[in-house]
Amino acid sequence: MPGAVVPGAVVPFGERLTDAVAARGRLCVGIDPHPGLLESWGLTDDATGLERFAMTCVEALAGEVAVLKPQVAFFEAHGSAGLAVLERTTAAAQQAGALVLADAKRGDIGSTMAAYARAWLADGAPLAADAVTLSPYLGVGALHPALELATSTGRGVFVLALTSNPEGALVQRAVGPDGRAVAQAVVDELGVRNAGAVPLGSAGIVVGATVGAHGLDLAALNGPVLAPGLGAQGASAVDLARVFSGVGHLVLPTTSRDVLRHGPDVAALRAAALAVRDEVAVALG
């Protein structure tokens, strides 16, 4: 299982991601069981519909794309039954060879952050994925429990840096006393953690593909850059090449609705994902 962490043989997430991209192309596809998508697929907005949606995505995509990204909120909305579906979805996707990135955006301090880390990054945890998204706005230092646990278990993190929502700029582009934007400070702190990692560090960031001229020094990261916004949110493969000029080798573009709208037909879902993957390959080289 290329997507699973093997006990006793910890391979860093950055290395596993590099291998997955080399074998399957540079693309992450979201599993976002939005009520509107469930309806368009002819599914009920309950745990049964949720599972049919998620497992159809796994069947269509987990054997083809490098990374699948379940949006945790849509599973949590169905309570314990939804989280059980998330557990099964993660296991099935990993069994088929995909890496699984849990889009949970967790962030807190002290023992609470440590508990979030155990939930998503600890060996044997029911919800453990290959990587998880984190929010740094209680300070990157507050994420230490997750960063440390991810290192010890061979998993990864993607920390929000510069997101595509317009209101995020108020915080993320704010300039600190040292003259750096908050987003750049996030990049720099994680870059220190990734220093010397070969082929790639395991602490990544999130930068929206729709942010335009961002002014960030992403080369300092030496880690993966998750780039949401491809497709339905308005970014094209050409935009990726422009926004991430010079650091395309770090970028993991992610798309969701633009592929998922082709369901529930398995072949159509797969074909849509592969078409996007090919466009990205041409644009980023």
UniProtKB/TrEMBL annotation:
All residue ranges annotated as the Orotidine 5'-phosphate decarboxylase domain in the record: 26-272
Gene that produces this protein: pyrF
Keyword Lyase: yes
Pathway: Pyrimidine metabolism; UMP biosynthesis via de novo pathway; UMP from orotate: step 2/2
NCBIfam families registered for this protein in UniProt: pyrF_sub2
HAMAP family referenced in this protein's UniProt entry, alphabetically: OMPdecase_type2
EC assignment: 4.1.1.23
Protein name: Orotidine 5'-phosphate decarboxylase
Enzyme class: lyase
Pfam families given in the database record: OMPdecase
Active site: K105 (proton donor)
GO terms for MF: orotidine-5'-phosphate decarboxylase activity
Family: Belongs to the OMP decarboxylase family. Type 2 subfamily.
